[in-house]
């Protein structure tokens, strides 16, 4: 009888450790996914921080990959999705449930920024390469010629 009682107490203790709401929330997880693009809708923004807040509590966060894509797994609820890259920050309210499909949404408060693509030269390297600047000291050589 004593082993049976110990087994029942262990069984009760084991199931009293689980919180039913946590198990239910984890089993109903949804995935929010998207792509972050520059205002020209062509250039992906990599390493942008995407955070999901439920009230004031951070529930999930991730960084965009090199193609601007992200995925966050969240339980159902009303979230504030915050996107930030450098000094640029914007946010959007979203509802996540079994009937929600967000094919595309536009963030209304985009700042006016420009996107520049191309190549650049470091003038310091050019001056060192042609011999006008000492690479050890960074000083400009003065070339004096006597005529």
UniProtKB/TrEMBL annotation:
Hydrolase listed as a keyword = yes
Q: Which UniProt keywords apply?
A: Carboxypeptidase, Hydrolase, Protease
According to the lineage, what is the superkingdom?
Answer: Bacteria
Q: Which GO terms describe its molecular function?
A: carboxypeptidase activity
Note the InterPro entries from the entry: CarboxyPept-like_regulatory
What protein am I looking at?
A: Carboxypeptidase regulatory-like domain-containing protein
């Amino acid at each position: 009888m004593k082993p049976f009682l110990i087994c029942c107490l262990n069984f009760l203790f084991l199931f009293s450790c689980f919180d039913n709401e946590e198990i239910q929330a984890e089993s109903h997880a949804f995935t929010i996914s998207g792509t972050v693009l520059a205002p020209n809708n062509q250039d992906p923004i990599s390493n942008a921080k995407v955070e999901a807040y439920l009230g004031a509590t951070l529930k999930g966060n991730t960084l965009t990959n090199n193609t601007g894509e992200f995925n966050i797994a969240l339980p159902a609820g009303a979230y504030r999705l915050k996107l930030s890259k450098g000094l640029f920050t914007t946010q959007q309210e979203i509802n996540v449930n079994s009937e929600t499909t967000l094919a595309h949404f536009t963030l209304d408060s985009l700042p006016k920024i420009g996107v520049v693509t191309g190549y650049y030269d470091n003038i310091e390297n050019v001056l060192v390469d042609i011999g006008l600047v000492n690479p050890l000291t960074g000083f400009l050589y003065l070339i004096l010629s006597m005529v």
